[in-house]
Amino acid sequence: MIIDKLYKEVQAKGNVCIGLDTHLDYIPEDIKLKYKDVDEIIFRFNKKIIDCTEDITAIYKLQIAYYEAYGIKGLIAYKKTLEYLRSLKALTIGDIKRGDIQSTADMYAKGHFEGDFEVDFITLNPYMGFDSITPYFKYLDEGNKGIFVLLRTSNPGAKDIEYLDVNGEKLYYHIGNKLEELGTKYMGQFGYSLIGGVVGGTHTDEAIEIRERYKNMYFLIPGYGAQGAKGQDVNLYLNNGNGGVVNSSRGIITAYKKHEDGIGNFEKYTREAVFSMREDIGYEK
Ligand SMILES: O=C(O)c1cc(=O)[nH]c(=O)n1[C@@H]1O[C@H](COP(=O)(O)O)[C@@H](O)[C@H]1O
What we know:
Blueprint (H helix, E strand, L loop, with lengths): L1 H12 L2 E4 L9 H6 L3 H16 L5 E5 L1 H4 L2 H17 L3 E8 L3 H12 L7 E4 L12 H4 L5 E7 L5 H4 L3 E2 L2 E2 H13 L11 E5 L7 H7 L5 E3 L9 H5 L8 E5 L1 H4 L12 H16 L4
Parallel strand pairs: 1-2, 1-10, 2-3, 3-4, 4-5, 5-8, 8-9, 9-10
Antiparallel strand pairs: 6-7
Helix pairs in contact: 3-5, 3-13
The structure holds orotidine-5'-monophosphate.
Orotidine-5'-monophosphate binds next to strand 10 and helix 12.
Pfam families: OMPdecase
Pathway: Pyrimidine metabolism; UMP biosynthesis via de novo pathway; UMP from orotate: step 2/2
InterPro entries: Aldolase_TIM, OMPdecase_type-2, OMPdeCOase_dom, RibuloseP-bd_barrel
């Protein structure tokens, strides 16, 4: 099962999920001068990141907005990056955060679990109801695909809706309880299901309870670095060092910019950022 593969990748390489949220402003001038087309510029930058981090990175997450923003060429870069990651047998998350009625969800599932944009995992927004999540399950049945569903997000606005008290319990617990129950049908060999949850590392209140309640849920934990979450915060969502991957996008892909000699030492500074994040989270090899 794909979740077992992720578990093993984390064991072997650490908990880092690199977010390839590639804004043109993040790309060094030499790449922009060397390649003419936007798709090639973005892909070459992504490849440079991947090539120097693949041995110390559990999974890569591509936030699709960064590709859609550059139109057709952006989507070509998205496809090329996914193809390249697949050729390396590296795991991928398509961060698409979809949520819609069943007939539309069927097409989102086809669009991101098959064809040009095929990934191993996608992110989903459950706040339209559970019938917006279940259409993806036919892909889970075979064991090769998984989902990460928003539970409690990393943004300050998480408190506006996700924290609302519903029948004496916060709304995100209602989501979590249902996902945990649905996940029992898709259990992998290490005790985690193909239905994972997204929990922002920026909020740590109730982190211990969340980890405790949702034993079979693998977590995608964003918010590290640029949004302020620290190793000790995200660690609360892990279970003996596994059970979750921690995403950092800007913190890794713009790490080279923090150094005067960054462009000439791009690989060195990018790797250093991943190593120091792994260590901060508490990964021990
Ligand atoms: O689903 C996500 O990945 C996500 C959920 C969430 O609660 N917060 C959050 O920041 N994200 C994503 O995680 C990434 C965070 O990027 P950085 O803040 O640059 O590390 C972005 O791609 C966000 O869209």
